Amino acid sequence: MKNVLSITVAILSLMTSLAAMADDTTGTKVDLDKRGDRIEHRLDNKGDRIENRLDNRGDKIEQNLDTKADKARDNGHEKRANHLERKGDRVDQRLDNRGDRIDNHYDRKGERINNRLDKRNKR
User: Fold this and answer.
1) Which of 34, 84, 93, 117 would staple 69 via disulfide (CB 3.0–4.6 Å)?
2) HSE (CB half, 13 Å, CA atoms) of 109?
């Protein structure tokens, strides 16, 4: 058991020293440009995923409320049906707007980071 522990400690120390040596070679100017592009791409994808998720949620809620409105209309409750349809439209529109706003926020953030790293790269 003692040998296993000492071997494990030796391997961990070797791995950390190799990682430290590898970090000394990174950080060149070319890496900053690639890093900025990678960060911008990642943030763009994150914004798109959030926007799609909110759009899908809004569509699902609107579809559910439209189904309830159809059922209310079949039972002769026209005002209730109109109310449910308007409510579904409002919820869907609100979630669509929120998704667009979040996507734009992440797009701007990614562009800002990429531009900052490009400027540091040109120094």
Assistant:
1) 84
2) 13
